[in-house]
């Protein structure tokens, strides 16, 4: 098993006043050639947006964009005619494909919104743009892996145009379980949302990240109550990026 450890305080950081953002991988003004991506996982931003503020309308194409709110309400509008609000306990996905414009704003005037912004390279370009969101709170599992994203539209959670599986691990102190990878050639980027956990020989605290590959499974152990996002993705980039 191979791993790469990213301690929380080694992430890129940009504070724009209305936006406080931490970048696990190179993004905007933070450029680190050793941290461009983990396989097809291109962006993992940990964002806090001030009351009533947000990202104005801007374009994307040929990217799978996932948002996971951690606190507050996030208002989404896009050129496909979608208007929606997502909140903690939900997940949003947008396949940019041939091109889409969207905005994301803090819906509330009295509290910030905190969310993860995640970009994944699709397996192919030029797909039809699409939007979806789902409530994942109602399916929450304790001391187990709750799948929230996959390549299969008929499976649990939302789906994207990539052989990727995302799961939430909400483990109580002292509990552990093996995570089996879904597909050969995939790796997993584990990001600790809260608490302390151990994967292999590595102890991880809140907002630490660990990339894991060249293995069929690994063990996740909670050293205190912990919530962890596991992002399983292909390690090989698609042909259009080579």
UniProtKB/TrEMBL annotation:
<dbReference type="InterPro" id="IPR014710">
    <property type="entry name" value="RmlC-like_jellyroll"/>
</dbReference>
<dbReference type="Pfam" id="PF02678">
    <property type="entry name" value="Pirin"/>
</dbReference>
<dbReference type="Pfam" id="PF17954">
    <property type="entry name" value="Pirin_C_2"/>
</dbReference>
<feature type="domain" description="Pirin N-terminal">
    <location>
        <begin position="11"/>
        <end position="120"/>
    </location>
</feature>
<dbReference type="InterPro" id="IPR041602">
    <property type="entry name" value="Quercetinase_C"/>
</dbReference>
<comment type="similarity">
    <text>Belongs to the pirin family.</text>
</comment>
<dbReference type="InterPro" id="IPR003829">
    <property type="entry name" value="Pirin_N_dom"/>
</dbReference>
<dbReference type="InterPro" id="IPR011051">
    <property type="entry name" value="RmlC_Cupin_sf"/>
</dbReference>
<dbReference type="InterPro" id="IPR012093">
    <property type="entry name" value="Pirin"/>
</dbReference>
<protein>
    <recommendedName>
        <fullName>Quercetin 2,3-dioxygenase</fullName>
    </recommendedName>
</protein>
<feature type="domain" description="Quercetin 2,3-dioxygenase C-terminal cupin">
    <location>
        <begin position="148"/>
        <end position="233"/>
    </location>
</feature>
